[in-house]
Amino acid sequence: METLQVIADARRLAQTFPNLPEPEARPAAVIVSGLPGTGKSFFCRQLAARLPFVILESDAIRKKLFANPTYSAAESAYLFRAIHCLMENFLQKGIPVILDATNLNRKHRERLYSIVDRNHAKVIIVQMKTPAEVVQKRLKDRVNGNGNGDNSTADWSVYKKMRPTVEKIDRRHFTVDTSKDVTPSIMKIVKEASR
Ligand SMILES: Nc1ncnc2c1ncn2[C@@H]1O[C@H](COP(=O)(O)OP(=O)(O)OP(=O)(O)O)[C@@H](O)[C@H]1O
Ligand SMILES: [Mg+2]
């Protein structure tokens, strides 16, 4: 059972998402995984342009919860408790969601699967695998202020620090290389979500 604080925060956060998609009997829950700069947020926006979803972008939600984020372990732990609660609330109502976060840790993903499963939603896992040299260039551009409207501040040093923490995805999943055209992957996921 979550604390009243987390429940209240999740309720407050839910109100910051206007134009919610229509509820469905079995909504899709897209779980995106990938290192910083691999193109998760870009991909999520493209997907949501094709099919209505609420995008739960961890970096955007972090800013809503913490005016001056520190990215500490405690802050991230609280953030994800709120995200889990929010995700559960949307799925309970039948609203399709995309979780845009690195989701590199197997145990963390297990928590997500149980939320999806107990709400009878359809899990779709998407792993971003983009060549490191492409990511490095993109992150350099982002730091130089060319990453328009980006919520993330992760740079190449964060990428390198996180790279050894990647844990293999055991479940069936889609793999996307965002250095190539992402449209075919978007179409496959749209098809899977609409089934
Ligand atoms: N398919 C793509 N084609 C061209 N540019 C892209 C593509 N995907 C991402 N980019 C660019 O690369 C940069 C990083 O992408 P994005 O912000 O989507 O990564 P991310 O995985 O969400 O990173 P973070 O974990 O830090 O949030 C952005 O400036 C974005 O515009
Ligand atoms: Mg992002």
Produce the secondary structure layout.
Blueprint: H1 4-14, E1 28-33, H2 40-50, E2 54-57, H3 58-65, H4 73-92, E3 97-100, H5 106-118, E4 122-128, H6 132-143, H7 156-162, E5 174-176, H8 183-194
Parallel strand pairs: 1-3, 1-4, 2-3, 4-5
Helix pairs in contact: 1-4, 2-8, 3-4, 4-5
The site of magnesium ion (MG) has 5 residues, from helix 2.
Structure description:
- The structure is a single chain.
- The protein is of the alpha/beta class and about 200 residues long.
- It has one domain (about 5-195): P-loop containing nucleotide triphosphate hydrolases (Rossmann fold, 3-Layer(aba) Sandwich), CATH 3.40.50.300.
- About 50% of the residues lie in helices and about 10% in strands.
- It has a five-stranded parallel β-sheet with strand order 2-3-1-4-5, with helices on both faces.
- Helix 1 crosses helix 4 (about 75-90), helix 2 crosses helix 8 and helix 4 (about 75-90) packs parallel to helix 5 (about 105-120).
- The longest helix has 20 residues, at about 75-90.
- The protein is globular, with a radius of gyration of 16 Å.
- The mean pLDDT is about 95.
- The site of adenosine-5'-triphosphate has 18 residues, from helix 2 and helix 6.
Biggest sheet character: 5 strands, parallel
- Examine the coordinates and then state which fold CATH places here, giving the name of the CATH topology: Rossmann fold
Full CATH superfamily name? P-loop containing nucleotide triphosphate hydrolases
Distance between the termini: 33 Å
What molecules are bound to this protein? adenosine-5'-triphosphate, magnesium ion
Number of domains: 1
Kindly name the structural category: alpha/beta
Q: H/E series, N to C?
A: HEHEHHEHEHHEH
Name of the level-1 CATH class: Alpha Beta
Task: Output the strand order for the largest sheet.
Answer: 2-3-1-4-5
Q: What's the architecture, going by CATH?
A: 3-Layer(aba) Sandwich
Contiguous helical run count: 8
The residue fraction in helices comes out at 40-55%
> What's the mean pLDDT score?
96
DSSP summary, beta strand count: 5
Assembly state here?
A: single chain
Strand content bin = 5-15%
Shape verdict: globular
Taking all Cα atoms into account, the compactness measure Rg is 16 Å
